[in-house]
Amino acid sequence: MFQQIKRTCTERYDLGADIPTPAMGANSFELISFVYDNRSFFNLYLLKDTIPGLHEELPQAIFEMLEERFTFTPLGDHNINSAQFKLHMAHGTAGVILASAKPAMKNHRKK
Q1: For 83-107, how does the pLDDT look when each residue is reduced to its tens digit (9 = 90+)?
Q2: Which of 12, 34, 50, 72 would staple 8 via disulfide (CB 3.0–4.6 Å)?
C-alpha cells in the first residue's frame, strides 16, 4: 500500500516539470480519491489496536513522495523545501485524510 500511495500522488506529473498551483485543479488530489476507493484498508488507521507500524506508514509515504518528487516555489522569502517543512506537511495531510474518514466510519458502524 505504501508504494501505491506514492505512485498515486506522482504518476500524473513529469519529473522536474513546473506545475503552478492554480493549474492543479481537482484531479491533482488523487490521493483523496485513492483513500476513498480503499477506505476499508484506511479505516484500519482509525482503530487503536491495529497493524503494527500502520500509523506511521501514511505520513511517511506522503513525506517520501514530497521529498523525492516535489520542489516547491515559495511566494516570498520562505524555505518550504526543507525536510522539516515537508514532514510537517505530510503529517498534516495524513491528519486531514484520517479526520475525513472518521465520519464515514461512524456512519458505517451505525448500519
Answers
A1: 999 999 999 988 887 787 666 555 5
A2: 34
